[in-house]
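Quick one:
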Amino acid sequence: MDTDKLLLDEQAIQIKAKLFRGFADPSRLMLIEVLRNGKRSVGELVEITGLSQPNVSNHLRCLADCNLVKKERDGRYIYYSLSDPRITMILQKSEQLLSEVAKGVYNCTRYDSTNDLENNE
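Output:
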């Protein structure tokens, strides 16, 4: 199969878009950023992020459903961590890219954090 056709495979594009939606929500991204430093309980994530417990739990469920985070029980606590070290690599690469394109991203009005990303498609 031709490389261009592989890149344009509709199902593959949809799956990639879902992956990036996992990172697109500021609350989910904040949780992922905290988990870069190691496993945390829901209570710790609430304290660190300032998000409400139900909000943290809902976002963790979403991230777990997408296999971006994993959970493990330790006694009566459940700890969450990133499911794959490549997630940290994606974040590092995005930071490198952002350092070069930050002005354009900052000035971009199409993906304003106050707008629903779905409305800009």
